Amino acid sequence: MPFTAYAIGMGTATPAPHHRRDAFREMRDWGFDGVALSFSEGEVLLSRRDFDMQIRDAHAAGLKVHVVPSRLGGRFAGLPVASLWLSENSTSQLPENAAFACVEDPAFREWTADFIRMLFSDHELDGLIWDEPKYSSLVTRHPATLAKLGPSPTPEDMADSFIEFVSGLTAIAREARPQLEVSLFNMPLVKPYFTSRCAFIEGLDYLGFDGACSLQSRYHEPASKMKHYLIERWERTVAECAAGGKKTFALIENFWVPESAISEFYETLEAYLVQAHPDHLSCYYYGFNNDCPEEFQRRVMAIVNAAGYGA
After folding, report:
1. Cα dihedral: 4, 109, 202, 181 (round 10)
2. Which of 179, 200, 204, 211 shows the shortest CA–CA distance to 281?
């Protein structure tokens, strides 16, 4: 079963190659068999050579490399950066929100197709993770949408069009890398109309959700329930995957955990892994903005290892 370290910020700003090699070896020692790395427009412009070094170093440590195409016109998550292409191609922006590209727009589709084709043709990648498709059912009045879907598109029309969009990009990636492992996870609040149809995307292996295991806090504010807990979407994950013949996926959001919520996180994670056993499990390699980050990461890994991942 794939057990993937989410490490989508490893190639930014000031990468120290020897530190990164040490990190990949630590991931392997903890039982991870793969690492998820971001590939955004910034990486294209600034660090293609460094991205190849990351892949080689990860492979040398015995890890598979799953790539997370980040943002892409704002229509996916991943490394939190703005879309450079969209800022320079305003005719593709949604009239309702200029931070998002229109997935029906031919120019955007051509650009994303070229982006994915280049990514998987040029780099020795083992996996693809689609991270949180964004606003998959948002009805827009963009001219390209109206031309393709008619004058009164529904949320269901928009969701179906987004599925077609992701399906096309997945096919391009698989054409370049036929043995690719492909995963997709949705935000827990996304409506079942979209998430259930993701299970029928051809070429997709794993499907699921991300989620938290405790209350969270970004800084001094009191901890609160900012994210759905993973266990709250497990039955839905199993049902959707069974309907479409896919395997299950889960990403543990082990970040924003203040000291007051650490005990809850441990208990909830242990309980989740007693009830659920995703076919592809991922958690953040040193989740960001936690109290007691070293001890917290060691304890999270001990709980996950005890459940049979990487053990």
Report:
1. -20
2. 211
Q: What is the pLDDT of residue 15?
A: 74
- State how far the alpha carbon of 226 is from the alpha carbons of 61, 139, 214, 260, 261, in Å: 35, 26, 9, 15, 12
Question: SS3 string of 222-281?
Answer: CCECCCCEHHHHHHHHHHHHHHHCCEEEEEECCCCCCHHHHHHHHHHHHHHHHHCCCCEE
Q: How does the average pLDDT of the chain come out, rounded?
A: 95
pLDDT digits (tens, 9 = 90+) for 203-213: 999 999 999 99
Sign of CA dihedral 39, 42, 45, 46: negative
Q: Report the pLDDT value the prediction gives residue 13, as an integer from 0 to 100.
A: 62
Whether the predicted model's global pTM rises above the 0.85 cut: yes
In this model, does residue 82 exceed pLDDT 90? no
String of DSSP letters for 111-126: HHHHHHHHHHHHS---
pLDDT tens by residue, 170-218: 999 999 999 999 999 999 999 999 999 999 999 999 999 999 999 999 9
Q: And the tokens for 291?
A: 């109290």
State both tokens at 243.
């309907």
Separation CA 166–CA 163 (nearest Å):
5
What is the Cβ-side half-sphere exposure of residue 30, based on CA atoms within 13 angstroms? 25
Token pair recorded at residue 152: 């009164």
Beta bridge partners of 34: 4, 64
Assess contact for 204 and 246: CB atoms under 8 A.
yes
